[in-house]
Amino acid sequence: MPDKALPSGASIAVIGAGIVGVASAYALARQGYEVVVYDPSPPGEAGPSRANAGHVGASDIHPLSTPGIHWKAMKMLMNPDGPLKIPVRGAIAQIPWFWRFWRTSQRKRFEVATSALSYLCSHTLTDTGAMLESASMTDMLLHAGCAFLYDTEQSFTASKRIWADKNARGFDNEEMDAGRIVQDIPIIADTFRYGVLSHKWSMVRDPLDVVRGLVEAAESNGVIFQRIRVNSLCGGLDSVTLETNEGKSQHAAAIVAAGVNSVTFAKSCGDFLPMAAERGYNLTVPAPGMELELPLVFADRGIVATHLTSGLRIGGWAEYAHPNRPANQNYFKSIARISAELFPGLNLDNANYWMGNRPSLPDSVPVISQSPHVPGVFYNCGHGHYGLTHAATSARILAELISNKSEDERYRQYSITRFSNMR
Ligand SMILES: Cc1cc2nc3c(=O)[nH]c(=O)nc-3n(C[C@H](O)[C@H](O)[C@H](O)COP(=O)(O)OP(=O)(O)OC[C@H]3O[C@@H](n4cnc5c(N)ncnc54)[C@H](O)[C@@H]3O)c2cc1C
Asked: Was domain 11-49+209-273+364-422 assigned CATH 3.50.50.60?
């Protein structure tokens, strides 16, 4: 593709039908492009888009790698119920990623990542609302805020700087004392004394239903979904050729939105994408015997909870391991035990256990950009903990880049080239 806007009606391939690929396909179709989505699995079902916590976490403007993260990480690793896990087998392979992750915690880089995430976060609720409204799914989004709960006064006090920064940037929140916590969230253990209610936070009724609803809306805008795996990409002068399980297909451009597999496509284009599989574990209980009114984050435990259409979903954690490694069954047992502690009286019968690979980049900022090496290739990937949250905004940015070839400075912060000096 030449270095100018792609004309309306041009054919675009989207690789991956998770929430990010489907939202991108829908946004592009609404700009008048002919879109074909390739995924060997039914939309939303193969990756973490299937069973994430359903939070639209619009105030989480800071990267995971905060200043001083290395001390916190050490503590987490030593605690068997801590949220960070790095299995000994394969740990060495994770070192380069963690080195890049640690570099984000340095003040200047931390500020850069915070600014990139703040832009996304400040548009998330509007863009998500608009996307769902246009797909006739307004009732899918609930605006309840989110309660962040702390186990100790020490951790609560340590978090205050982060909350003050959010407030200063317009992401308002208020402290919750023990009385307010009991009143607003009577179903949790009565040990929580410190909390913060973040107002800029929503949830969806069910993340898989969101993907399915968007697929329907996209199809009615002409998007074609092919149950086909893409094996490789090859860029020509004015086109991109996909090698699939069912032969070759040619498009004017291709979007890489293949979750943790995006890295393979980036490599074949000569682009450096330092992505890790950050595996999260959760359980969903269809008849928990209790109602949770608003999303929760148990901040010291890396555990979140949401009451979705499919049931009460509780889980989180971050296990850095090869994406194909089987789920660690002991973690499911731990999550079940912790869930019973956090929600006394929880009925765990018929719980569904699930593990998913978050596609995580070391600065927690997604890549939404053109390939510098193969001009017809674009990326929308690496959303880590917040793919559902930022699907609509990143899809809008991507559609703007492709249709206007916008030179908007604000979008440079999502470029894949930011990793070039981190090889
Ligand atoms: C436990 C947990 C809780 C989470 N909670 C939240 C939350 O509350 N809010 C939030 O915003 N985010 C949350 N996330 C993160 C969120 O789920 C992810 O960021 C998001 O789902 C990533 O979407 P994606 O479309 O980029 O990737 P995926 O969902 O992984 O989709 C990628 C798709 O690409 C396809 N694909 C891969 N390779 C190929 C190929 N070669 N050819 C064709 N197709 C291919 C796959 O089959 C898959 O369908 C959570 C994640 C986990 C694990």
From this structure: yes
- How does the average pLDDT of the chain come out, rounded? 95
Ligand 1 shell residues, CB under 6 Å:
15-21, 38-41, 46-49, 52-55, 57, 229-230, 257-259, 261, 280, 282, 315-316, 356, 358-359, 381, 383-389
Model confidence band, residue 1 (pLDDT cutoffs 50, 70, 90)? very low
φ and ψ at 360, to 5 degrees? -110, 135
Nearest atom within ligand 1 for CA of residue 282: 1
Ligand 1: nearest atom to the Cα of 295: 8
**Right CATH number for 58-204+275-360 from 3.10.105.10, 3.30.1340.30, 1.10.287.1080, 3.30.9.10?**
3.30.9.10
Confidence class for position 134, pLDDT limits 50, 70, 90 = very high
Q: How confident is the model at residue 404 (pLDDT cuts 50, 70, 90)?
A: confident
Tell me how far the alpha carbon of residue 367 lies from the centroid of ligand 1, in angstroms: 14
Atom of ligand 1 nearest to the CA of 258: 34
Per-residue b/e over 127-165, b at no fewer than 16 CB within 10 Å?
A: bbbebbebbebeebbbebbbbbbbeeeeebeebeebbee
Distance between CA 57 and CA 384 in Å, rounded?
12
Closest CA to ligand 1's atom 41: 230
Atom of ligand 1 nearest to the CA of 265: 41
| Residue 2 scores a pLDDT above 50 | no
The pLDDT score that the predictor gives to residue 261 is 98
Residue 410 pLDDT class (50, 70, 90 cuts):
confident
Chain region(s) in the chain for CATH 3.50.50.60: 11-49+209-273+364-422
Range(s) within the chain of domains with CATH label 3.30.9.10: 58-204+275-360
Mean pLDDT of 355-384: 97
Residue 81 · residue 338 · CB < 8 Å: yes
Q: Which residues contact 58 (CB under 8 A, 6 or more apart)?
A: 121, 122, 124, 125, 171, 200, 201, 202, 389
- Indicate whether 174 pLDDT > 50: yes
**Pocket mutation for ligand 1, best pick of 39, 60, 320 (most atoms within 8 Å of C-beta):** 39
